[in-house]
Amino acid sequence: MNKFKNYIFDWSGTLVDDLGPVLDSTNRIFNYYGKDSFTRDEFCSEFCLPFKNFYDKFLPEVPMSELELLYTKFFNQSDENVFLLPGAKEILCECRNLGFKTYLLSSIKKQHFEAQSAELGLSDFFDFAYTEALDKRDWITMLLKDNNIAREETLFIGDMQHDIETARHAGVFSVGVLTGYNSKEMIEVSKPDLIVNDLFELLDNIVNKT
Question: In terms of DSSP H, where are the helices of the chain?
Fold first, then answer.
């Protein structure tokens, strides 16, 4: 791992567990249009990125602009909490101590990221945060160019197939972490360069191989 100097992190399911409010908000949208709610397992097996692919499957008649407004409204109203995932703060601290650059690339709403990162004490760890990246494949190339980042010195850590596909699209090392939305079986289908159970395991790789 000693060749990697740039760490790009996904947010939801990678650094934080926000499945509670995300599922709550999504179910409120579905109920609003007269659809049944998802169970936690059903949602995790069906949910995918980009968001449009998910909603095109279940609510194809509703414009994305309308869905985004409803999602923001319901998320802001949700009583469900967001939690740090194991190793999240520790790995960001270690990256900073070692002088590595850290970036965020996430589909999360900017206002939600700013509120959550402030509450959880992660606001100051990122060199730059790219939020509202609806299709991360369109954004990662911009991230690399904006920050003059060498692909061979960069890895992208995420919990979903879309994250692995994004890393491959950009030609950077991909790490699938099993703390989020996609199951191990789903992550394995995408064939990441490395799979870890949580960020503590990735941190161990960094510390022991730096």
Answer: 19-32, 40-46, 51-58, 64-77, 88-97, 110-120, 136-146, 161-170, 184-190, 199-208
